[in-house]
Amino acid sequence: MIAGSAAATVTGVSAGSAHAAVPASPGVTYRNTIAEQRADPHIFKHTDGFYYFTATVPEYDRIVLRRATTIQGLSSAAETTIWTKHAAGAMGAHIWAPEIHFIDGKWYIYFAAGDANDIWHIRPYVLECAAANPVTGSWTEKGRIALPLDTFSLDATTFTVNGTRYLAWAQNDPAVGPGTNIYLARMAGPWSITGTPVMLSRPTAAWETAGGETVNEGPAVIQRNGKVFLTFSASATDANYCMGMLTASASADLLSASSWAKSAGPVFASFAATSQYGPGHNQFTVSEDGTSDLLVYHDRSYKDISGSPLNDPNRRTRVQKIYWKADGTPDFGIPVADGLTPIRLSSYNFPDRFIRHWEYRARIEANVAPIADSQFRVVTGLAGSGTVSLESANFPGYYLRHKNNEVWVEKNDGTSLFASDASFFARSGLADSAGVSYESYNLPGCYVRHYDYLLYVQAVSTTTGRADATFYTQ
Question: Tell me, what's the pLDDT at 18?
């Protein structure tokens, strides 16, 4: 995770001259999908400059690993099978949800497995590798993580808070009912826990029990500004699958269930407009420059599944940027459309305000909710000729366009007039070359600028006008 705050600083002495420093977390984009038919993804950025990527394969029979110096590079990176299921006995079936971690100078993979003769006897296991490169190094089995309750258990993950290492996982406890709950315990070593685990979350709400399944699973942790955020996945592994979140203070007793507050509803869920269904089993990583937190997750591109979701192989690995609200909590937004991920555009002279659509009118506003109203894909301009167009993230096919010099978000009607009105030249920021200004394709010399917080396309000739027409990508 990123240290510190992403809030921009403001300089200047008046509203007319105030402006933002270049954002601490500038825009970053990726092209989804990262990997087809790879579920429960885990991407780990190591100090050696490589990202390491592992995930569940549809055959549920092996653990695979890739590495690349960029996240996008993982898409084409060679994949190596570093471990294969046993032909008999334990670790012989349902090889699920591997995660790779680097602890005290060695690599560890946590994964779940059933028995060859009892495929639902699923428990957590650990592999170890002492080599610098875990893709080519040899892995040894450290065995099963012994838990006090010997029941269905999976999705182990590990993290540290204030120097203490914890293990979080999902497990069934027949005494409290069907399904799986989220548990937490201190670790005594990379493959053992100590003390009594605590149940942090039990699926009781409708959004946690949809599709006929009672599920909390796939815990993942991200920390920021003294808070610990533990996300988890809920409901059946079809289009009902979604993410919830638990929040605690880093200074609290994390082994006390009362230290954690649970989200009232899902924080990330299916979004039909972008054709993304069942997003979840997430983890977190950071951008190449270390300034953006990223959500790593799987979903499907269709809603309806024939038969059991576990027999459908098409969960795929995706990434997108996480934004942080003014109150310090993460905003995951929506699962964005396939292809290029969107950005946000903050105002140069009103740094807490972002371009957004509201009832289809474009404006700048602070604390945008839903955040997807302020996310746009910068795509090849509809008019071509070296231009760009800004496509709404939550209304695919709708673009920023000008009409009567006002800027609106409207659906592409396929006309040449719309294409021209929705195309812009991306110029160096008129008030700061580190920013961007958008010059109209068919009104040369006119730029997208804000006035009374609404967006217009106008000629700019003053210092204020140039400031109003300058934006930063975030």
Answer: 55
Say whether 274 sits in a helix, a strand or coil. helix
Report all structural domains of the chain as residue ranges with CATH numbers, in order of start: 10-22+343-473 (2.80.10.50), 31-338 (2.115.10.20)
As given in the structure block, the two tokens for residue 189 are: 């070593």
Residue 14 has pLDDT above 50, yes or no: no
Q: Rounded to whole angstroms, what are the CA distances from 312 to 58, 284, 299, 302?
A: 8, 25, 12, 11
pTM: 0.95
The pLDDT of residue 12 is above 60: no
Mean pLDDT of 295-311: 96
pLDDT tens for residues 237-267? 999 999 999 999 999 999 999 999 999 999 9
Q: Note if 40 is an active site residue.
A: yes
Rounded Cα gap, residues 294 and 70, in angstroms: 13
- Please give the full DSSP string across 283-316, using - where no structure is assigned: EEEE-TTS-SEEEEEEEES-S--SS-GGG----E
CA distance 322 to 267: 12
H or E element in which residue 367 lies:
none
**Hey, CA dihedral for 360, 363, 365, 367, is it positive or negative?**
positive
Helical segments of 9-95, H only? none
The one catalytic residue in 99, 155, 208, 217 is: 217
- The C-alpha R_g of the chain, in whole angstroms, comes to 24
Tokens found for residue 396 = 């695919």
Rounded to an integer, what distance in angstroms lies between the CA atom of residue 80 and that of residue 417?
51
Residues in contact with 141: Cβ distance below 8 Å, sequence separation at least 6, in sequence order: 91, 125, 126, 127
Strand partners, 317: 35, 298
410 in catalytic set: no
Share of the chain above pLDDT 90, in %: 95
